[in-house]
Amino acid sequence: MTPVLKIEDVWKQYRLGVIGHGTLYKDLASWWARLRGKEDPNAPIEFSSRSNGGGPDRLWALRGINMEIEQGDVVGIIGSNGAGKSTLLKVISRVTGPTRGEIKIKGRVASLLEVGTGFHPELTGRENIYLNGAIMGMKVSEINRRFDEIVDFSGVEKFIDTPVKRYSSGMFVRLAFAVAAHLDPEILLVDEVLAVGDAEFQKKCLGKMRDQATGGRTVLFVSHNMAAISQLCAKGILVSDGAIAYQGPIEEVVQTYMDKVTEDLEQEVVFPDRPGVPASFTRLCLLDEEGRKTAKFANSSNVTLEIEFMVREKLVKDHIFVLLDRSDGLLVTKVSDDDFGHSPPEIRYPGRYVSQVRFPGGILNEGAYRFRVVIGKRRAVQYDSQACGFFQIEDTTDYRESCFGKRNGAIMVPVEWRHLSGPTDS
Amino acid sequence: MVSETHTTSLSQTEQEAEWTTIIRPRHPWLHLNLRELWQYRDLVALFVRRDFVAQYKQTILGPAWFFLQPLFTTIVFTVVFGRIAKIPTDGVPDFIFYMSGTVCWAYFSACLQQTSRTFVSNAGIFGKVYFPRLVVPTSVVISNILKFAIQFVLFLLFLAFFYYRGAPVAPNLGALLLPLYLLQMALLGLGCGILISAVTTKYRDLMLLVEFGAQLWMYATPVVWPLSQVPEKYRILLALNPMTSVIEGFRQGFLGRSALDPDLLLVGWATTLTLLLCGLVLFSRVEKTFMDTV
Questions:
Q1: Which domains occur in chain A, in start order?
Q2: DSSP string of B132-189?
Q3: Model confidence pLDDT, tens digit, residues A114-154
């Protein structure tokens, strides 16, 4: 198989903070002081603690990346935030240059780092399709050919000749994605752009991505959505701290990532004070049935989440929402403090509050989970949202006789069997 | 980590020839990828269209603004420099003298100021997608030619008016050199603009100097005064400012009066090409990594 992308020992360094000192005058002053052997009057007083080699104000975002992608590969690039995934895509798509190393590319590269790049609000949808398409690398003749397909995919046919500034945000995103989805590059880089639009549109985009992926095109896909990545990609690359931690079949890579994630379980998390906000969370912790702080639970035991929050302005009819996420991104449930007949206080006066919400045991399957909490009104208003660390639901043999490792599935509920009939013994 | 195995059947250069793009940290001094710029010509055209259209959409007067600007400027100059200050204008009616100057200067000034903001005003789009960065200044220079064309028509109308009224204006074959003057202004505006653009990615305060500097530059150029007023031995010095020979040349062709001299033209072009070269060198050094500092 022919390699279409080869990354050879690529390093990328960023300088943190304000580059130079921001103005020519200050830089000249510093230079003059250094020349005279005096101390630089504009040097920062303390050094950043994020120095990981290269000095106090430099950060290696990519370290010695070596990668070879063959034609037709659909590769998922995963890693925690700040690992360097987006930087890697930026360097491959030439938005910024590498500090060291070489990148060899065969064919046209199109990157979807953002949807709607270059859209001008005064131009109509039609004009923006051409502009956006050309910016992404299409020729006008290509756009002409695919124009109808693009408009059809976006669903904004009726408004194609109105200026884009009149579009709703949903229409805007659909149009922008429609153009992007019809690029025809040899290599396609996609960075989290699927996180836009409503559910129906997301399904359409996923479908289109799948078509691209199966059409023999080479795709590099960065996302936090493990489910989408596992579906679309065959191979995976795990990026951690600027270097490649693991490469291989996608299932293995995803598993390695999730194992790393659940290595740090936290039973309690404290948040800094946020004085300007009407309400904010100060502490989240997990308690077992005896009220002890823990991060591991048997699947039959109840899980209690204790929420401590500060209210600074009187809250009227505001609610606390609790979301339960599985470590691969699946939202298990979302509950509100007035569900199931509960009546939270309608008015919350300023002060410190502690609330607890108990999730009954015997439902969740093994795995790592995490709570997210939001305080605000139903849809529009959110004063604060935070997440606690991961906690683990562990399989305990009080449910199963045989223990062959983790069973797949989202839930593990006690079911009842009744064997009604069978052949009688002869 | 993927280990590299070099295939022994293909030589290094043959292998390299397979790749369409190789990204390296450093370019040679002057990395002018004109072929790539040509591949993106559709984009240049679309940018030109966007700049032109977006400017006058939703304005009452629309494209008429392109007429009004030079008209008003010329009127002001005529009153201030012609009537009040009484600066001589080479024997040519002062209105048309000033108009010839402003029409040319407006083109150059627009090119200079807009290209000098290339990186800063397009940081958003440059940060998300790749296309040859030169596309933006190129499209600026071309879209301003369209505006120049509109203003030039206005100039021709007034010229015809003065001519038929019997004023001492003598358009001649020198007018055919207009494309050359335009080219020079374009290259000069492009060169200086991208030079400034490259420098201001790091030092934003220099941007404030550009507008101010352009104004000063105008007064140092024979826009509101004729070169003939300057003693001959100093003219060559003034010719280091390429706009001097451009405007005098323009006046020579359309009005028939100027202090133009082939020496001055040569000096002007020499400066233009030097500035263009410096601009391109600096630009190509900055364009790879400016996104990290802009």
A1: 17-56 (no CATH), 64-262 (3.40.50.300), 268-394 (2.70.50.60)
A2: -TTHHHHHHHHHHHHHHHHHHHHHHHHHHHHHHTT-S----GGGGGHHHHHHHHHHHH
A3: 777 788 888 888 999 999 989 888 889 999 999 999 998 88
Which tokens hold the place of A18?
């304000």
Which tens digits make up the pLDDT trace of A159-199? 899 988 888 888 888 888 888 888 888 888 887 765 555 66
Between the alpha carbon of residue B236 and those of residues A217, B259, B264, B287, the distances in Å are 61, 11, 6, 35
pTM over cut 0.90: no
Residue A65's closest CA among A9, A6, A105, A4? A9
State the Cα–Cα distance between residues A129 and A154, nearest whole angstrom. Answer: 11
The residue behind tokens 């040349």 is B249
pLDDT at A400: 53
pLDDT of residue A145: 92
Cβ neighbours for B106, distance < 8 A, ≥ 6 positions apart:
B69, B70, B73, B147, B148, B151
Q: How far is it, in rounded angstroms, from Cα B260 to Cα B252?
A: 7
A73 CB-side CA count, 13 A:
24
Q: What is the pLDDT of residues A227-246, one digit of tens each?
A: 778 877 889 999 988 889 88
**Residue A47: is its pLDDT beyond 50?**
no
Question: Number of Cβ pairs closer than 8 Å across A and B?
Answer: 119
For residue B291, the chain A residues in CB contact (below 8 A) are 90, 95-96
C-alpha–C-alpha distance, residues A409 and A414, integer Å: 14
Q: What's the average model confidence in pLDDT over B258-272?
A: 86
State residue B294's pLDDT score: 62
Determine the pLDDT at residue A53: 45
Nearest residue to A328 (alpha-carbon basis) of A231, A227, A196: A227
Nearest by CB to B20, which of A14, A92, A106?
A106
Asked if A64 and A11 count as a contact pair (C-beta separation under 8 A), the reply is yes
Which chain B residues touch A128 with a CB distance below 8 Å? none
Smallest CA-to-CA distance from A228 within A247, A208, A248 is with A208
Whether B5 has its CB under 8 Å from any CB of chain A: the answer is no
Radius of gyration of chain A from Cα atoms?
26
For residues A130 and A139, give the distance between their C-alpha atoms in angstroms, rounded to a whole number: 9
ipTM of the complex: 0.79
Indicate the domain borders of chain B.
Answer: 33-293
**Alpha carbon A189 to chain centroid, angstroms:** 16
Q: What is the pLDDT of residues B171-183, one digit of tens each?
A: 888 888 889 999 9
Q: Is B41 on the interface with A (CB under 8 A)?
A: no
Q: How, if at all, do strands A296-298 and A315-316 pair?
A: unpaired
Q: Which string of DSSP letters, residue by residue, matches A69-92?
A: EETT-EEEEE--TTSSHHHHHHHH
**Cβ atoms within 10 A of the Cβ of B233, count?**
7
Residues A331/A199, Cβ–Cβ less than 8 Å: no
> Which run of H or E residues covers position A319?
strand A319-326
Ramachandran bin of A48, using left for φ above 0, alpha for ψ from -120 to 50, beta for the remaining angles: beta
Residues 193-252 of B with CB under 8 A from A: 202-206
Structure tokens at A202: 């997301």
Look-up of token digits 């108009």: B99
- Comparing A239-253, B194-208, B236-250, the range with the smallest average pLDDT is B194-208
> Quick one: CA dihedral B31, A64, A83, A89, positive or negative?
positive
